[in-house]
Specification:
Blueprint (H helix, E strand, L loop, with lengths): L33 H7 L3 H7 L11 H7 L4 H13 L14 H30 L5 H37 L9 H6 L5 H14 L6 H38 L1
Helix pairs in contact: 2-5, 5-6, 5-9, 6-8, 8-9
InterPro entries: Hemerythrin-like (IPR012312), RIC_family (IPR019903)
Keywords: Cytoplasm, Iron, Metal-binding
Pfam families: Hemerythrin
């Protein structure tokens, strides 16, 4: 049998992108209708909300809606296209053009959504769904969820307490000799991984009978896991590079 020599230097590699057939992939522009963006990629309704944009924009295009709401259209579209394309690469060329104020608003509103709406909502449904289980099972599952929610709270509270004030000072021209964004980047753990454990407990070890409510809780957990992953990607690949660029300019 003839052996064929394979040279890694001559092979071409391409990154395989996970396809999402229910969503439109492609570059959205200011001239596209905001309603088309939401209908074609419905998770973007959360992105829109986190930039402070409400529903009810009629036939206005993305640029018009952004300007009417005081949102930098370039930053909005960068986040939208970054998430719609599902890539994990630093976006270096755009770092200096992003509105850092808008990114902070986006991240802050995401924190508020997770901590004050999404996680409490899931907990209420979870408690109802497992109410028929033995008390020790109910205790273990709810404690696991509460411990997870506390970890998320600590993670996001650190950003609100330390990272965002630091960045706002940078924007005002004030540097901190004891802190930089690389400190945040090194300690930035993947909080969405923790919710995977709760999901697996319910899928593999839940002792009670299945129900529509429990299935709904599980669906919410899957959606939250994906949403947290997207949130982390925006921080790692858009926010952090933008702050690094800002630090270099000062």
């Amino acid at each position: 049998m003839e052996e064929k020599e394979v040279s890694l230097a001559t092979r071409s590699f391409r990154r395989v992108r996970k396809k999402k057939p229910m969503y439109k992939n492609g570059i959205y522009r200011e001239t596209d209708k905001m309603s088309d963006l939401i209908c074609e990629n419905y998770p973007m309704v959360l992105v829109m909300s986190r930039f402070g944009i409400a529903l009810g924009f009629g036939e206005e295009n993305i640029g018009e809606v952004c300007r009417r709401n005081g949102v930098d259209a370039y930053t909005f579209l960068t986040v939208v296209n970054f998430l719609a394309e599902d890539v994990n690469l630093p976006v270096e060329p755009v770092s200096e053009r992003l509105s850092i104020e808008n990114l902070i608003r986006y991240l802050h509103n995401a924190h508020d959504y997770f901590l004050n709406f999404r996680l409490p909502h899931i907990r209420r449904k979870l408690v109802d769904a497992i109410s028929g289980c033995p008390e020790d099972v109910v205790f273990v599952i709810t404690k696991f969820f509460d411990d997870y929610a506390e970890e998320v709270n600590k993670h996001m509270a650190y950003e609100e307490r330390a990272v965002f004030p630091y960045v706002r000072n940078l924007l005002a021209g004030q540097k901190d000799s004891k802190y930089n964004i690389s400190i945040f980047r090194k300690r930035h753990d993947q909080i969405e991984m923790k919710i995977t454990e709760l999901k697996n407990i319910l899928i593999k070890y839940y002792p009670g009978k299945g129900s529509n409510l429990l299935n709904s809780v599980l669906f919410d957990i899957f959606a939250t896991e994906e949403d947290l992953a997207s949130h982390t990607r925006v921080e790692d690949y858009l926010f952090v590079p933008a702050i690094l660029a800002l630090e270099k300019r000062l």
